[in-house]
Structures are given as structure tokens and as C-alpha cells.
Amino acid sequence: MLNQPVLVESLIVFVIVLFVHAAVWDRYSWCAVALAVQAFYVQFKWDRLLQLGGAVFQFRTAANSGLLPASMVIPLLGIAMKERCKSAGIVYFERFGIVVASTGMLVALFLSVIAVGITKPVPTNTCILTGIAGSIIIYTMKHSLTVSEVIEVLEVLLIFVYLSMILLYLLPRCFTPGEALLVLGGISFVLNQLIKRSLNVIEGRGDPIDFFLLVAVVGVVLLGLFFTVLFIFLDSGTWISSMFFHMMTAVLGLGVIMPWLYRLIQRNPLFWLLQFLFETQTRVYLLVYWTFLAASACGIVFYQNAKRSSECKKHQASTITRKYFHFIVVATYVPGLIYDHQLLYVAAVLCLAVFIFLEYMRYFRIKPFGQTLRHLLSLFLDERDSGPLILTHIYLLLGMSLPVWLFPRSCAPKGTLSGAGALVPYSGVLAVGVGDTIASVFGSTMGEIKWPGTKKTVEGTMTAIFAQIIAVALILIFDSSVNLNSSYAWILASVSLVSLLEAYTTQIDNLLLPLYLQIMFM
To answer: Which of 106, 125, 269, 494 is the most buried (most CB within 10 A)?
Structure first.
């Protein structure tokens, strides 16, 4: 029997794909439609494999595979980027958008073929659909990409295959297939871009802050892989192992990551970072303000743990308590978006690196803070943290930061896009910081009418849509760079679709919703 929430989630994704297709209407958008149709059918094969325990790796339970919504994110982002840069006349980034879309389609097809290949008996109709969609996409790529671009797409696919085999084995139950596609696909693309730009650094293309993001992401991933292999042979909980962890982190950071970044930006990374952070008085004020908010977040963690009584060790923080952090994140990002995009970009990269490093310390029980972090963060676990890693706070940071990082600055001559595109950097704030938070708080306290087949309420969704419209009005008042050019109907439709997706998806909404809202705005 077909799962009603999955069908509604799929319908919402199809509507978004058709919206993009109607706006673009070229061969790439037709490929996206073909990919969506085959992903819809393959999704049910993945769901069946997960229910029967037939998947090769252990995926996150209490969620469907999420293949359709995840499969469409990277292709639609690439198509939207291509159109924006084409209208701005930036050929280099127009081609880059085509490569992003092609890569996303090929990686999604690979995951579909895996599901079809290990399903017994072999689903004939789904195989035919996958073959037709694959033929359309490969034919389009053959007549659209240059030889170097085809090689680049295949490189990302190869990295994705090896990275998936390693990380899904080392991190069981941390991802659904769809989340693995998004996270590992993104890491694979970043790693390939870093290698490509390192080899072609003489060309001088790219902003130092872009290189900073690439090196930081690849650096923390390589650091994690190194210590995972190392602690197979050593007990990570001892003082000797902990000292070795800190020493090797310093060696890899100063001996590998810093020289790599120096080669890319052609200056001392530490001096560049300090000069960048304290370049203007506005940046100093923002840094002081963000430090205060970070201290407040730490205070909430300590206060909530202090409330946990010894008789109730299994007590978990309520949904409303967890949403405090959403409010803090909104208070962090909005001033950065209004006053200094670039500082927010770099600060978010630094925060991501710190979050992942602290998670390594917690996971490996590195002294002196590893065990303390385990105790403090256990209070805020929910059903999505079923694997060895705690990722929800990292997903929250990613959901807020990805629209800032993926904003096509080179295709926006005045630093902002026109129409609804001007709200692209605010996608995370609207979808996660405002919409998801308000829906959760009002739905859990006042909601009575539930959406069919889910725990989410109609009142929560309606309130979330209303709150996001108010947030857009406030952005118009306080951010003079935003000019919507009467595209209010499109904004209302975008916010409504993403809010409905929040009600029905079982994937990590902090990661998925901002990306779909960004696609609609672009």
C-alpha cells in the first residue's frame, strides 16, 4: 500500500519541478522532469528495501528514503544558477550551472540504479523508466557538455561512489538514502572543485572567501577520516590518544590545510583572516554581538542540563526548548545579511569547522571535553540522531548558511538579484529560522487539526506561512538592498509550497527546506 505522506511530499516536489520547468523551459528542465518521474518510482523500491533490511548499508530509521526530494535539489540549483548567470551574461558561471545540474542528475541516477539493481525480483517497469530517464539525461549531456566538463562530472561521480562506501560504512544510521545523496554529493563536488582550482590556481579565478569554504570543508572531512582510521587501532578515550589527537590536528592544520589555502589565496591565511575580520568597525560590532549570542546559546545548554534531575536521567529537552536555538540563529544571521554578507559567509564557515571539530571530540571521547560534550548534548537528542553522530545542530547551521554560500554573487552585478531572487540569502532564515520554528511551536501548543498521515498540524503550517510573509515585510523595511519588483505572488507560492513540504517530509527539514526555498526564489 502506498504511503500517503510520501505521495503528498512527492506531489509537492513535482509542483516545484514543474514551476521551475515552466520558468526555464529548455532541455535541462525537461531532463529534470524525467529525473523526477523515475525518482518517484525508484523511491518506493528504496522504501521497500529499507523496510525489509535489504539495503547494503544501515540507514536512518523512522524515515522514508527521501530519494525524490533529495534527487531534485542539486539539478534544480544548477538550472536556476544557469538561468541567472545567463541573464547576467556571465558565461563562465552559466557553464558552471550546467555542470552542477548534470552532476546532480548523474549522481541521483546512480543511486536509483543501485536500488533497482539490488531489488528482488527485478522491477521491470521501474527499470524501463530509469533507462528512459537515463538515456534522455545522457543524450542531453552528450550534446551540451565539453569533454573537460564531462570529465569533471565523472570525477565527482567517482568521488561520490568511494566516499559513500567509506562514510556509510563508518557512520551507520546517520543518513537516509536521500540525505546521503545531498550531504555526500555536496562534499564530493566541493572536493573536486578544490582539486580543480588548486591545479589551475594561476588562472586567478575565485574569491578568497570561496577558497576558504572549500578548504575548510575538505579539511574537516579529511581530519575525520584520518582519526577514524587511527582510532581503529588506538583507544581514543585515553589521555595519550587525546594528546595525540590535539597534536595531529595542529600538524594537519598548520602543515597541510594552511599551506593549501596559502597556495590558493597567495597570502598568509591567518593574517588575511585577521585583517578580514577586523577590517571595519561594523565587523567588530557584529563579532562582539555574535560572541554574546554564542555565550547565550551555551548558557541555555548549561541551564537545561542543570534542570535535569538525577531521578530523571532520560529526560529530553522539549521541542520548544530546542527552538530557542532557532531564534538565536535568526538573531545571528539577520544583522549579518543586512550589514555584511561577506563577514557572515566567513563566520559561518568558521562556525561549521568548530561544530564539526567539537563533534569529533564528543564522538571519539577526546579529553578533556569529550565526555562532557556527550553528557551536555544528550539532552537535546531527537529521533533523527539515531546514529553515532549528533548532526541536527550541524544541519541547522548548514540550512542557514547554504543560501549565503550558494548565492551567485558573480551573477548579481549590484550584489543582489532582482525580484524574488533578492530574498535568496534569506532562504534559511525564512524556511528554518521563522517557518519551521513557528510551525513547531504553534503546532505543538495550539494545533488540533493534523495533516492526514502526519503529526504536523494545519494550524502550525498556516501560522508558519503567515509568519514568513511578515518576515518578508520586515526584510523589505530594514534591508534597503532588497527590491521585490512586485513578485509577491511568486513569494507567497514559494513559501506556501515549502511550508507544506515541511509538514509532510520525514527528511532533515533544516537541510532540505532552505534549499527548495532558494530554488524557488532563484
So the answer is: 494
